[in-house]
Design brief:
Elements lengths: L3 E5 L2 E5 L6 H11 L7 E11 L8 H10 L13 E6 L6 H12 L5 E12 L5 H11 L5 E4 L28 H9 L6 H14 L5 H10 L2 H4 L6 E4 L2 E2 L4 H11 L4 E3 L6 E14 L2 E17 L1 H6 L1 H17 L6 E11 L24 H19 L3 E8 L1 E3 L4 E3 L4 E10 L14 E6 L9 H5 L8 H6 L6 H16 L5 E6 L5 H12 L2 E5 L12 H6 L5 E6 L4 H10 L4 E8 L3 E6 L4 E7 H4 L7 E4 L17 H9 L7 H4 L10 E3 L2 E2 L4 E2 L4 E4 L7 E8 L8 H16 L11 E7 L7 H20 L2 E8 L3 E6 L2 E6 L3 E10 L15 E6 L12 H5 L15 H14 L5 E5 L3 H13 L2 E5 L10 H6 L4 E7 L3 H9 L7 E8 L3 E6 L2 E7 H8 L1 H10 L2 H11 L27 E6 L6 H10 L3 E6 H5 L10 E4 L13 H8 L2 H11 L5 E5 ...
Parallel strand pairs: 7-24, 12-13, 19-22, 30-31, 37-40, 42-43, 42-44, 44-45, 45-50
Antiparallel strand pairs: 1-2, 2-3, 3-5, 4-5, 4-6, 7-8, 9-10, 10-11, 11-16, 12-16, 14-15, 17-20, 17-21, 18-20, 19-21, 22-23, 25-28, 26-27, 28-29, 29-34, 30-34, 32-33, 35-38, 35-39, 36-38, 37-39, 40-41, 46-47, 46-48, 48-49, 49-50
Length: 1289
Amino acid sequence: MNSLIEVSQDTIAIISSARPSEFRLEKLRKKSMLKDPSKMDCFEIYFCKLNVSINTISKKELKSLITLLNGNDDKTFLNKDFFFITPRIGTISPWSSKATEIMNNCGFEMIERIEQAKCYFFQTKIDSKDLELASKNLMDKMTQEVIHDLKNVTKLFSKHDPARLTDINISSDNLESLINANMDLGLALNDEEIDYLAISYLKSNKNPTDAELMMFAQANSEHCRHKIFNANWTVDEILQKNSLFDMIRNTYKNYSEGIISAYEDNAAILKGNNAERFYPQDGLYGLHKEEVNLVIKVETHNHPTAISPFSGASTGSGGEIRDEGATGVGAKPKAGLTGFTVSNLRIPGLPETWEFDEDKPDRIASPLEIMIDAPIGAAAFNNEFGRPNILGYFRTFESKNSEVHFGYHKPIMLAGGLGNIKTEHAYKKEVPIGSKLIVLGGPSMLIGLGGGSASSLFSGEGDEDLDFASVQRENPEMERRCQEVLDRCWQDEKNPILFIHDVGAGGLSNAIPELVKDSGHGGHINLRDIPNSEPGMSPMEIWCNEAQERYVLAISENDLERFASFCERERCPYSVVGEIVSGRNLEVYDSHFDNYPISLSLDMLFGKPPKTHLSFKRSIQEDNKTKVRGNLKADKILEVLRHPSVASKGFLITIGDRTITGLIKRDQMVGPWQVPVSDYGLCLTSFSSTTGEAMSLGERSPLSLISSKAAARISVAEVVTNIIPSGISDISDIKLSANWMGSPGKLDGSRDLYDAVESIGMELCPHWNMTIPVGKDSLSMSTEWIKDKKNKSTISPLSLVVTGFSPIKDISIAVTPELKDKESSLIFIDLGKGKQRMGGSIFSQTSNENGEPCPDVECKDEMPLFVKAMSKLMSLKKILAYHDRSDGGLITTLAEMSFAGRLGLSIKLDHILIDQNKLTELLLNEELGVVIQVLSDEKASVIDTLNESGLKDYIYDIGTISKKPQIDIIFDNQNLISLEIKDLLENWHRVGHEIQLLRDNPDTATSEFIHDTDFFSSGLKPEINFLIPKKVNISSNKPRIAILREQGVNGQNEMAAAFNEVGFDCIDVHMTDLISKRYFLSDFEGLVACGGFSYGDVLGAGGGWANSILYNRELRNQFGDFFHNDEVFSLGVCNGCQMLALLSSLIPGANKWPNFKRNLSEKFEARLIQVRVNESPSIFFKGMEGSVIPVPVAHGEGRLDEGKELIESNCASISYSDNNNHQTESYPSNPNGSFKGIAGLTNESGTVTIMMPHPERAFLKDQLSWSPEEWSQYSPWIKFFLNARDFVN
C-alpha cells in the first residue's frame, strides 16, 4: 500500500513502476538545459479522482487497484525537489478517457477519472530557478502543465461552472466592436467581411454573439472557402475569364471518364474494379461481389505541425482519414501517404556546406525538431487507427540572399490516401424534416479553437497563445471506434446513414451548419446535448472547438435504434443533438442559460461576401544562363546522395505499419534487402482478386523560383513516371489530387500561383486527358517575426504536390527498381529529349548555385504513347526493373537500383555523352527520364516497342550489371569515375542515421546503419522444407472460429480472411458480445485474438484488454474453460499475443510465459523480417520445423527479456532469423531485442500459440513486399492456417 498517496479525501496518487530507459532519461536530462542534469530522475505517477471518499474503499480494492496499475513503493521523492508534468489543467487527455474506461470495465467504479503524469525529482538540492527552467523545457506548452505542489494536483479534476455567452454590441460604434472581436478572437476576417457582417446584423436588428462570429469566421475562412482559388484575377490590367478553380475544373470538363464524384464531397470518387470484398455481415465474414470504387483525398496540416509537430502531424493524418470515411454515406479508408517539406535540417552531427545559420522565431519548431517528432506523430495515428502508410516524400529546401529568405519554416505536412466505397453509397441521401442529427465520437474539449482561421493566417500574424489554442490533440483509438460504426453501417444491406460530415476545421460550428444547409432545410440543436468533457466552456467554445475524432450524421428516426446498437457494441460515444426542421434558419438552444447562442439564417452564414480580387503585372524576367562546370568528382556525388531530398527515407518508413489490412501489394521497401526506393504504392482490390489500386507522388517545388509553370508540369509528369511500374494501362486512367502551397501577395507569389495553375489546368492535363477531381490549397506559406527590432520573414516557393491514383487491371505485372542478377542490359529513356538543365537541382542546391534554366516537360506528345508502350512491355513481362530519374539525377537512379539488387554496374556513356566536360550535367540533371533493365536477348524487341512512342532518338543502352561492388562510369574506354557501393550506401543512409541517433536508441540506430550499408549481406533468404500448396481444398464442414477483438483492435479482417481461406466460418466477436452474452466461447472450435491497439495500449500493450477479462469473474471463467479444452485451439497475434501473455495464469502449460516489453529501439517497428520455425508442440507449426520464412512485424512492445526455460522446454515456437538464417538478437533482423530472438510461444500442449509477427498479412504471395519468384498464389504461411484446420477435423 506504500504505492498510494492520499492527496485529498477524493484524490489519490499511485506511484508507477514505469521508468524511462537510460538513454531516454539521458535525452530528458539534456532537454532540461540544466548545468548538471545528472541528478534528475523520472517516473510515471497516476492521479485518480474518486467519486467516493477514500475511507469507504476497502484495502482489498485498493490493493487490486495498485496491482492493476503496477504500483511502486518508493516514496522518497516526496522528501526531495520535484515537479509533475501533467495534462493541461482544464483538459482531459485521450489517455485518461481510455484508462478510465479500463478502470470501469475492470469493476473499479469508484474511479471517476484517472490521469497519467510524469514526476521529475532530483537526488540533490536544486535552486528554484533551475527547477523552473527544467520544468519549462520539459513540458509541451500545448498539452501540458507543471505542478510543483502535490496538493495542487486536485486542480486537474476541478470543475467550473459554464462560462457565459458574449454579445458583441454593434449598434453604435461604427464597426469598432467587430474590429476588436476580429483581433481578440483571431477570426482572420478581412474588411469586406466585417462590413458584410455589420450590414447583415443591422438588417436583422440583433447583435452577434461570439459564437456566431467564430462560426462565421470558420465557415468563411480561406481554409474552408478557398477565396483565392475562387477569386477574380486581373493579369496585366486584363480581367481574366477563369478563376483558378475554373482552370482546375477545366480538366474535368475536358475528360471525366472514370470519375463518379468530383468537387462535391469530402473526397473524390473514382470508378474501380469489380471484386469480391471480404467483410462481416450479421457477424459472419464472407465474400461480397460488388464494384469496389476508389475514394481519394490528400490534405495538408502545415500550421499546426509548425507549432506542435507531433500533434499537428498526427491530427493531420487523422483528419484526412475522416475525410475518406465520411465520403458519400460511408466509406472505408484503405491506404495512406505522408509527406514533409521543411527548411534545412542543420543536424548537429552532420553539418553541410550548403546550410547557413538558422534564423527563425521561437514560437515554431525547428526543421530538425519537426522531422524528429512530426513523422512519428503521423505514423502513430495511422498505426493505431489501422491504416497502412505506403507512400511519401521528404524534401528540405532553404535559400537566402541579401533581399529574400526562401524556405519552409512553416512546413508542408501532407496527409492523404485512398479508400473504397460502394457505388450505391457514393452520394449523400435526401435528409427529410424530422431526421435526427448525431454527433459520433469523442467529447468536446477546449482544443483546436479557431483552427480554420489560424491556418488562413501567415505564421506570425496571429497571437502566440491563439497559435497554440488552434492546434488539436489526437485520439486515434476513438477514431477507430467511429470507423467501426461506419463499417457496420456501410456493410449493412440497409445503410442507416442519410448524410455524414467529418468534424474538422471549425468543429461542430462548421460541420453541423454545412449538413443542415445541404439538407435544404433548417436545424434545431440542443447545445447541452453535445458530449462535453469540460463543462466550464462557454457556448462559443462548445460550439466551435475542434476536438478530434468526431463526425456529424443525419439518421432517420426509424433507423436510430439500429444505429445506436452499432455504437453501443463498439463502445463508441454518440449523442442525438438535434434535428432537421422546416425553414432556413439554424438555432442552437442553451438550456443552461435558457438562450440561443446561435440564431441566424443559413443564407446569411453561407451568403456571398464581396468576392476576392487579385491582380499582378508580369515583369520582364532575365534569361537564365547556363554555367560552365569543371570535372565531376566522386565527393560531389556523395554530397548529392547525402542531401535529405535524395537520401534514404528508411527512418521515416519503418516507424509506420505498411501491412495492416493484408491488402498491400507494394510499399516503399523493395527486394530481399528491403531498400526504400519504390516509386509507387499498390493495394489489392480484395484478397481474392488480381486487380488493384495504385498511387504515386510528384513534386519539385524548388523549380518554382525559376519557373512555377515548369515546376507544376514536372510535378504532374513525375506522378506519371512514378506510377508507370504499377501497371497502369493508359495515362488518362491516372486521376490527380493537386495540393497548392504558396504566398500570394508576397513577392511574385500571385503570378507564380496563377501561372502554375494555368499551365496544368488549361494546358498539360487536358493534353494528356488527365483530370484533377480533388485538391487542397494552403496559401499562407510565409513566416514573419521580429528579431533585434528587425522585421524578418521566410517565404515558401510556390509548392505543388501532385498525387496520382489509378485502378490497376493486373497487379502481377508490376515491377520495382530491384535489379535482377541476369544477363541483361540497362536502357535509359531520356524523356528530357537531350535537355540537361541544372536549375533547381540537388546539385545546384548543394553548390549554392542559382539562376540557371530548370527542367520542364519536353515529352508532351510522347508521354501518353510511352505509357502505352511500357504497359505493353510489362504485360509481356519484358521489364525486369524500372526506376525514374528525379532528385539527384541519373546517377542517383542507377545507385538506388544498385542498392535494391546489391549489384554493381558498368555504365557506358559513349552513345549519350558528347563531351567529357558535360559529365556533371549528364549524371546530375533532373530532367524526366527512366531506366529499365531488360534481358539481353530481348533488348532489341524492347527498344522497337519503345520506339513506337516517338522517342527513338532518346533511347540508349547504357550498360549492364557487374559482379564488382562498385559503379563504374565509362566513356571512350576510360573509367571516368569508380564509385564503391559501400561508400554510396553510407552517404545515402547518413541523414537517417543521424536523426535516429537523436530520436531512437543510439545502439539500435548504429546497428541498423551497419546492417543497411553492408553490401555483401545476403538479405532475406527463405528456406522452406515443405511443399507450399497451389490450391486449398475446402470441405463442406466449416468449423466456427471466434475472430476476437476489443476496442482499438484493427487487424480482424485480414485474420478472418486467412482462416476463411482454409475453410473456417469466421465470426466477428467483440468483447461486448461476450459481456452481453450474445456469444459464448464454448460456441467455437477456435479463438484468435487479433492485432491492433486495444484501448490505445493504455496501461501497457494488451493490458487493458487482459485486465478487463481477469477482473471480470464470468469472462475469466469462460476464457479459462476454453484454454483448458484440448479439443480447441487459441491464437494470439501482436496485440492479441500481448494480451494472451497476460492471461498466462489461465492457460495450462503457460506458467513460464513472460510479458512483452517495449522494443529495444524504443520505437514502433514495422518491417519484413524472417523467422525460423523451432521444434515445438504448437499445432500451428506442425510440419514447418526448420523452415525460415519472411513475415511482417509491426509493433512497439514485442521484447522478451527472458526465455531460457521456454527454449529448453521447446515452447519457443519461432525465433527471429538473421541473413544467415540463424536465430539472432541483432537489430534490425530481431526488431525488438527479444532474448535469443524469441518471436512466438506455445503452451505445453500446443493448443495455445502466441506470436508477435503477422502470418495473416502474409498467407498470400502478393501480400509480401518481396518473395521468391517461384512462389505462386500462396506463401508458406498458408500451411500455418491449414494446420489449424487439420487440428479440428
